[in-house]
Write a structure and sequence with these properties.
It is a single chain. The chain is mainly α and 89 residues long. The protein has one domain. 28% of the residues lie in helices and 7% in strands. It has a two-stranded antiparallel ribbon. Strand 1 and strand 2 form a beta hairpin. Helix 1 crosses helix 2. The model has no long low-confidence stretch (mean pLDDT 79).
């Protein structure tokens, strides 16, 4: 279930108007050459898609990659990264 704020009208509106601003507020700074697309699919759902494979995961299988996904990555406010404690796969 998404958090309550995720479905609120102010957040939904900002996600469409200023997706980079929202990402910055969550600590995610994207380079200017990274395209951000917002799918405003319904009044209830918005998708911020960051289709980027995390560096250092080239040899990981789907199950290992899935274990890296966090709540923040699922709601589109953080990138999926390889934990430093994990080391190289």
């Amino acid at each position: 279930m998404p958090p309550v704020w995720y479905k609120s009208a102010p957040y939904r509106s900002r996600a469409v108007i200023d997706p980079r601003g929202i990402l910055r507020e969550f600590g995610t700074q994207l380079p200017d050459d990274v395209e951000v697309r917002v799918w405003d699919s319904t009044a209830e759902l918005r998708y911020l898609v960051l289709p980027e494979r995390p560096v250092g995961t080239e040899t990981m299988n789907e199950e290992q990659l899935t274990s890296l996904i966090t709540r923040d990555a699922m709601v589109g406010v953080a990138k999926v990264t390889l934990p430093t404690s994990r080391g190289n796969p």
